[in-house]
Design goal:
4 helices, 57% helix
Length: 107
C-alpha cells in the first residue's frame, strides 16, 4: 500500500504558525500539523459561501466580511487558535480573490 504522506503539502505560511524564531522544526509533530492544516483549510473552503452571502445580503465590503468572520472564528467554542484563525482569514480572502486582510491588533 502506498504511503500518502509523501503527497502531503502543507503551505509554508501554515508551517510558520508553529515555527518559533530561530528554529527549523515545527513545534507540532507532522501528523498533528497536517491535521491542523486540514482543519483550517476545510474551514476556509467552507466559509467561502458564507462570506459571499454576507457581502451580498448586508452590502458590506470584503474587509467588513472578513472582520465579522474573524469574530466568529474567535467566539466560543474556539475551534481554531488565534494564529490559525488569522491564517483561515487569509486563505478565505485568497480563495475569494479579496485583498489580504491585515492582522488584527495585538493586545
Amino acid at each position: 500500500m502506498p504511503d500518502d504522506s509523501s503527497q502531503l503539502v502543507i503551505p509554508p505560511s501554515f508551517v510558520a504558525l508553529y515555527l518559533p524564531p530561530g528554529r527549523l522544526k515545527p513545534t507540532l509533530p507532522l501528523a498533528e500539523l497536517a491535521a491542523r492544516h486540514e482543519l483550517c483549510e476545510d474551514m476556509a473552503q467552507m466559509l467561502t459561501d458564507t462570506a459571499r452571502n454576507l457581502e451580498f445580503q448586508l452590502g458590506i465590503t470584503p474587509g467588513d466580511v472578513l472582520q465579522r468572520v474573524g469574530q466568529g472564528l474567535r467566539a466560543e467554542p474556539v475551534v481554531v487558535q488565534g494564529a490559525e484563525a488569522d491564517w483561515v482569514l487569509g486563505r478565505l480572502a485568497e480563495l475569494l480573490g479579496w485583498p489580504f486582510p491585515s492582522p488584527p491588533p495585538q493586545g
